[in-house]
Amino acid sequence: MYFQDRREAGKKIAECLKKHQGENAIVYALPRGGVVTGKEVAENLKIPLDLIVTRKIGHPSNPEYAIAAVSENGELVANENEVSQVDKLWFKEEVTRQIAEAKRRRKKYSVHDFLSPKDKIAILIDDGIATGLTMLSAIAELKRYAPKKLIVAIPVCPADSAENIKKQVDEFVCLNIDPKYLGSVGAYYSSFPQVEDNQVIEILKEI
Question: Percent of the chain having pLDDT more than 90?
Answer without folding.
Answer: 95
